[in-house]
Amino acid sequence: PPPAAKAPSPLQTEVLDDLVALSLSFPLQPPEDQPLLWHHTLQTLVAHLPLPHKTYEWGAPVEGQGSRQQALAFTCAILPVTAHLFTNSIPPRVQATVFETVFCGLLLALCAKHSLAQPEMWRAAAEALVKVASAGAMAVNGSEEMGEEEKRRVWLTLCRALRSLILPAEHDILPEAREALEHVHVGEQVDMVVAHCIVYDLLPLAPSREVERALLGIVEGAVNDLMAIPTVAVSKRPQSYRFHLADQCLEALFDLASNQAFAPEDDKGSEEEQGSEEEVQRSEAMAQRSLALAQLAAPALLLCCHKILLEYVRDEAEASTCPLPRARTEQVVTAARRLQALELEPEVSRHLFEELCPSARNPPAAPPQQADAKDEPRAPREEMGMGRSGRRSHLLLLYGPMCQSISSNNPMLRDSLRSMLEIIGWEVGLGGLSWTGTIGRAGRAPDGPDVYHQASATPP
Taking 70 as the threshold, does the pLDDT of residue 396 lie above it? Predict the structure, then answer.
C-alpha cells in the first residue's frame, strides 16, 4: 500500500477539536437557529476538500472549496470529523436540509481521484461518504419539511453524482491519476466500497421505482464496463479495467435477483418480541421490499449475462490468434456457474418472463382441440416459458445465447453450458428422454428427489 500521510500539525488538530467541542453547544441554541449553525459549520469543513479538474452539473461546490491547497494530512483529518458530526451530532430534521451539500462535497472530493493521485484521501473520503449516505438518505425520506418533489430531486442528484464517480467518461480521467499501478488498485477498492453502499445501503431506502432503476443502472454499468477491454493490447492510452469491481457488482445482481441480498438475520429476541404485531409487520414489509427489488434486478441481471455470453464468443472468435484477457475469461465462467446455480422466486421468475418476453403478456389464442385427440393437452404457454419448477425462466430466456456459446474454446464454460442445457431440457418436459436429463449427472433432479419416480429410462 502507499505510504500513510503524515499526521496533521498540533494547531490543525486543536482547531478540529475546538470545532467539535463548539458543536456541542448547538442544541442549546434556539431551534430556528440550529440549521444555520450546522450549515455554516459543515460548509467550513467541506470548503477545505479538493475539487476535480472538471465541473459536474450535479455538484456546485461550496464557497471556497478547492481554492485552498491544504496539506494532505489535514484533508484526511477533516473527512472523519465531517462524518462524525453529521451522523452523531446533527438532529435528523437538520440532516435532511444539509445532506445534499455534504454528500455532493464528499463526492466532488472523491471524483478528484480522476485527476489527483492521493490514495490516502480517497480512502478517507469513501469511508466518510458511506457513513453520511445511509444516515442522510433516511433523514430525507423521513423529513416532514421537504416535499415529495424536493426529495425526488435530492435522490436523483445523488444518483447522478454516484454515476460520475463509478462510471466516469474516458476523457474525465487524466493520465497522471493512473500512472502508478498501486493508485489504480486503491481507486478500484474505493469504487467497490461505494458500490457496496449503493446496493446494500441506498437501494433499500430508494423512495421510488425511478430512483431504484437509476441506482441499479450504475451497478449494471460497472458490470458491462469490463467488456470494454480490447482484444489486442493498447499501449497508447493506459486504462484501468476494474475486474474486481465488475465481479462484485455482478455478484450483487445475483444476490438481488435471488432475493437473498436482504435476507433477515436470525432474530435472537424473546418469543414475545418475535411474535409482536409490530415485528410481524416490519418483517412482512421487508420481505415485500426485497421481492420488489428482486423483480427489478432480475431483468438487469439477465441482460448483463446475455451480453457477457455473446460478446465473449464474438471476441474469442475475433482474437483467435491470441487468448482473451484473463479478466474476460473469469467473468464469463463465473457468470455461467452462477446462472447454473440460480433459482428465482416464482413471482420473480414470472415477472422476468413477462418483462423480457412481450408475447407472454398477450399470448395467442390456443387452437381448439379435437374431441378425438388422443394426445395429452399441451402445457400452457406461460408454463412452458417458466419451466416445470417455475424458478428457472432465466435459463429458458438465455437458451439462444447458450447455444451460440457452446462453440467456445473454453472447456469450463462449455461444461457449465452443457449442464444448463440439460436443466432446460428437463424444464420444458424433455427430461424423460434420457437418464442424464431427468436425474442430472450429480444424481439429483433440478427440483428435488421426487423426479426419481418420473424417470422412464434406466441408467446405462
Answer: yes
